[in-house]
Design goal:
The chain has 262 residues and is mainly β. It contains three helices and 15 strands.
């Protein structure tokens, strides 16, 4: 064997050893010794690792806690709730458990409605294509100052509601930590306590409403997000006592909450 042939074989062996080193396999150097090589990551490996690091696992269920304030169509008005409604037609329970009746006309009063306040908890279940179904429990306070037209004394009127909403949402935008969605649904509410001054009022009716909302959420992490929801509601039924919903069946609610996903 000539010197040139030996040199050629040694070069070929070295190239083969280097090629096998990139694959993380065993190769041989020019002297015929076995060499254990290490695998060096390529461009695709770096991209895959980066995508895996920034890929957020899809959370299928979330729980939300929120507080909300309502914007009604009228903050104050005069007149009664119905054409011939008298306060004598409304049953009031006194402190001793007996029923009393006021003898004056409800239309002789003027009303100043405060901003409705709401608090609640909701659970959302996500499905495919950005759809989700949401329900929970809402508490709402309707508070008004009532004044007889011939007097300067205000009477406090408060109604406390517990409601169960049901809403279908569709998330149409998600970019980074920010997402937006729209929703539509309805709610059933029951007045659990109503007082006109110091007298308790019986409110047997339930209130039905439909609502549409648009929401925006910003994720603080994989599990926690803050969201803001303006919602427009329309109420079909009325209470015996006059409230802000009586003066305007349309109501705008601004909701701010925290959402926990898991």
């Amino acid at each position: 064997m000539t010197g040139s042939d030996a040199s050629g074989k040694a070069s070929a062996a070295a190239v083969a050893g280097q090629a096998s080193a990139t694959d993380g396999t065993r190769g041989k150097d020019g002297a015929g010794q076995t060499v254990q090589s290490h695998k060096y990551p390529g461009t695709y490996d770096y991209l895959a690792d980066d995508m895996q690091e920034h890929r957020r696992p899809r959370r299928k269920t979330s729980v939300s806690l929120f507080a909300a304030g309502g914007v009604t169509g009228s903050s104050g008005a005069a007149g009664g709730v119905g054409p011939n409604l008298m306060m004598s037609d409304i049953l009031l329970s006194g402190t001793n458990g007996t029923m009393a009746q006021l003898k004056y006309n409800y239309e002789d009063y003027s009303f100043r409605h405060h901003q409705p306040l709401s608090f609640g908890l909701s659970v959302r279940k996500e499905f495919a294509h950005g759809l989700s179904l949401e329900s929970g429990v809402n508490y709402t306070l309707l508070w008004s100052d009532v004044r007889m037209q011939s007097s300067r004394e205000d009477i406090s009127q408060k109604l406390h509601f517990i409601g169960v909403p049901l809403r279908l949402n569709w998330q149409f935008l998600e970019t980074g930590r920010f997402s937006m969605y729209v929703g539509a649904g309805g709610m059933l509410e029951k007045c659990v306590s109503a007082k006109f001054g110091s007298k308790s009022v019986d409110e047997p009716k339930v209130q039905w409403s439909v609502a549409g909302a648009v929401g925006a959420q910003y994720r603080l992490g994989n599990y926690v997000g803050l969201y803001f929801e303006p919602e427009v509601s329309h109420y079909f039924t009325e209470t015996t006592l006059r409230t802000s919903r009586t003066d305007s069946s349309l109501s705008l609610t601004l909701r701010l909450g925290v959402r926990l996903s898991f």
